[in-house]
Design goal:
By secondary structure, this protein is α+β, with helices and mostly antiparallel strands. It is 31% helix and 35% strand. It is built from 6 helices and 8 strands. The chain has helices spanning 12-21, 61-65, 115-127, 141-148, 173-184, 189-203, and strands spanning 8-9, 24-31, 34-41, 43-45, 50-56, 70-82, 95-109, 151-166. Strands 1, 2, 3, 4, 5, 6, 7 and 8 form an 8-stranded antiparallel β-sheet that branches. A hairpin with a 4-residue loop joins strand 4 and strand 5 (50-56). The relative contact order is 0.20.
Length: 204
């Protein structure tokens, strides 16, 4: 990951918070010269410094996870176009502000008996905001057993984290204020979230 010093995140806790919030990651494996890439919902286990996910058994990437030469997961958060008209400085060009974290580590397959725990963790996390959360117990046992056979679980031991929060840190305060104001006026949520993150950075 290209990492200008201005945008590098040093706070490991902040990067883990980011992964927990933006947990739909891009799983990348390299094995014997073959690169595989897929999007996967992840569960972060902070205590054991691990990521957990699953793939469809028909997705051949699971075969690369055990003994992969390299495993990475890219977690992408909010991102937004930045117009040069928002700067006080003149002669500027358009750019893009964004937030992302890359995790690298050793991957291995989970034994089948761990799948119920993994699926419960995933569903409980994402159902928590609903008034009547869905539970796995609602699935008939025979149907659930068949579904379990159709997926493969895996874990990744997090060895390194690289965080890149590009939030106009390389611009002067006046330009940053202009970008915050410009993004705050945009109709999409991504732009407004980036503006909020920029404001938090200025206030810290």
């Amino acid at each position: 990951m290209y990492m200008p010093a201005s945008f590098k995140v040093e706070d490991r806790s902040a990067m883990l918070d980011f992964i927990d919030r933006w947990s739909f990651g891009v799983l990348m494996t390299l094995k014997a010269g073959v690169l595989e890439v897929n999007q996967v919902p992840f569960i972060l286990d902070r205590q054991n410094n691990r990521l957990y996910g699953h793939l469809a058994r028909q997705n051949d990437q699971w075969k690369e996870l055990d003994g992969a030469d390299e495993t990475r997961v890219l977690f992408q958060g909010p991102h937004a176009y930045v117009s040069p008209d928002w700067y006080e400085s003149t002669g500027m060009v358009p750019t893009w502000n964004f937030m992302s974290v890359e995790a690298r580590g050793h991957s291995e397959l989970l034994p089948p008996e761990r799948l119920p725990w993994l699926l419960e963790q995933l569903s409980d996390k994402h159902e928590a905001a609903f008034a009547n959360p869905w539970k796995m117990s609602k699935v008939p046992p025979a149907r659930l057993e068949a579904m379990m056979k159709a997926i493969v679980g895996f874990s990744i031991d997090i060895e390194t984290l690289n965080g890149k929060f590009k939030l106009s840190q390389n611009r002067n305060p006046q330009d940053q204020a202009g970008v915050i104001a410009g993004l705050s006026r945009q109709p999409d949520e991504n732009s407004r979230v980036i503006a909020q993150q920029m404001q938090l950075l200025q206030d810290s």
